[in-house]
Specification:
mainly alpha
């Protein structure tokens, strides 16, 4: 019985160390990616972040990869990464926001509205969500709905100059 307890204790210790190692490696590679990104070495940063994910899945790393790919205008790759990230972190509002943004870029406006609504169910105060939804409504010709979204945005985020500008530029309804 003592032998069993001894072996079991060693296994628990090793598994704990392994998990700790994976976490440390993921954090280290993530930081290395951040440094590369800050130096403008986006491709190298993405490589580091991908390696970090091989050790431990983290929503922040997925977010960084997606944003970097959007900056590089590699939207199809960004879409694949955001979708993979959402399989692990389905309620990550930043990934949902980026998914909606990519839908807008692809001209998938109804899907974008659905994603934004999903995001707002999770976090009704997410900055820029109502603004993006207003932009989508404007794009599909729904001016009244767009204005409502811009007003919601400034109520949540009064410093959003873009939303204020949109509201000022829209017609006032008398009804």
């Amino acid at each position: 019985m003592k032998k069993f307890f001894y072996i079991f204790s060693i296994l628990i210790f090793l598994v704990g160390c392994s998990d700790n190692y994976e976490k440390r490696m993921s954090v280290q590679l993530g930081k290395e990616g951040d440094i590369l990104y800050s130096k403008g070495k986006i491709d190298e940063a993405i490589d580091k972040w991908e390696k970090a994910l091989s050790f431990k899945k983290q929503s922040k790393i997925y977010e960084k990869i997606v944003v970097a790919l959007i900056i590089k205008k590699e939207n199809k790759k960004a879409k694949r990464w955001v979708e993979e990230g959402l399989t692990y972190f389905p309620n990550c509002v930043n990934l949902i926001y980026n998914h909606a943004f990519l839908d807008v870029l692809d001209g998938k406006y109804n899907e974008a509205i659905e994603e934004i609504d999903r995001l707002l169910e999770i976090n009704p105060y997410y900055p820029e969500a109502h603004f993006m939804k207003g932009m989508v409504f404007e794009k599909i010709g729904e001016e009244k709905e767009a204005k409502k979204e811009y007003i919601k945005e400034v109520n949540i985020n009064p410093g959003c100059k873009k939303a204020w500008k949109k509201i000022k530029g829209m017609k006032n309804e008398t009804k």
